[in-house]
Amino acid sequence: MATRKAKKDGDNGNGNGKGKTDELLTLIYAVIDSEEKLNAKKGWKGAHVVFSGLNQVIRSEFKADPREVIDGYVAEGKLESKLAKKGIRVFRPGEAPKPRESVNRAAGVLAGLRK
Length: 115
Hints:
Arc Repressor Mutant, subunit A; globular
């Protein structure tokens, strides 16, 4: 029978030493899931970091800057984010809405002008 090592501060027991990080990411995913359930009839995905209270929880419970935390997870590929009114919306990887066709056309026009 395998024995588990005693948990150190900031360790979640999986040996990677990222207990706080894993706990925070789990919280973010839980907020995203609950927001999607609340807004299922509207068809909205993800969670708005301001209106869901996510910013406040990250600041008060984890003593971290929400922008740095979310940007870090986006850089690692654990979250996706999109600009929204009065903040950003965060999504699980692969669930963020794709850019509209008009945005793609505008990018093509700009690319053509720069040649």
